[in-house]
Amino acid sequence: MATAPLTARAFLARLDEHRSDEELRKYQRYFRFEAGHQPEDDYFVGVRMGTVFALAKEFVDMPLDQVEELMDSPVHEARAGAMSIMEKKARHRRSTPGQVAALAELYLRRHDRVNNWDLVDLAAHHVLGRHLRDRPRGVLYTLARSDDPWRRRTAIVATAHFIAHDDLDDAFALSEILLGDDHELVQKAVGWMLRAAGDKDRDRLLAFLDTHAARAPRPLLRAAIEKLDPGQRAHYRGR
């Protein structure tokens, strides 16, 4: 049997085989699109994310120019597929630092196409975070001060890779910068990274909350304190 070409066009054709009106309705509810009113440059076609990820595994050797072409698609599931391919490439045990650097460069250069929370979460951790683990991280502070909420979310989600390796400084520093963010999906991401950092160093999380809880937005605080004991949660909510 002939092997399918590892191209963006072939990936899109495979997506088209799995379209479902029922899945499309689910996306419209979950992402708060009114039926028939999705943006022309960013729309769902109704393919389950489990299927998208399975296709990404099949297409993991797709060349980067084709991944970028997939990122250019207006189909949301296609861009999710591109992010999943990038994540799988970055995590592959045979991936070299140079290959991960190329993935991170593509992610940053085409961040205009990483335009929703799910796309950020698919790749920021394992692509950008992995690339920056042993490198200067100034780009994250630039992203954290962006006008674009998805770039700000990228900045904090990328620190998940550092946290996993007991490196907490940037998670706390970026959380302080983003503490007053006005976008709920950035606030939640900050809270999740604080909670993860607290799993590694509970005292440091409590010290951060002692200083900053009084001005933390509610979604951020709720996520950050989720694993504290009931008395501690009540204390910080009362702040």
From TrEMBL:
Q: What is this protein called?
A: DNA alkylation repair enzyme
Pfam families, sorted: DNA_alkylation
The record's InterPro entries line, in alphabetical order, gives: ARM-type_fold, DNA_alkylation
Annotated signal sequence is: none
Where in this chain does the entry annotate a coiled-coil region?
none
Note the Gene3D superfamilies from the entry. Answer: 1.25.10.90
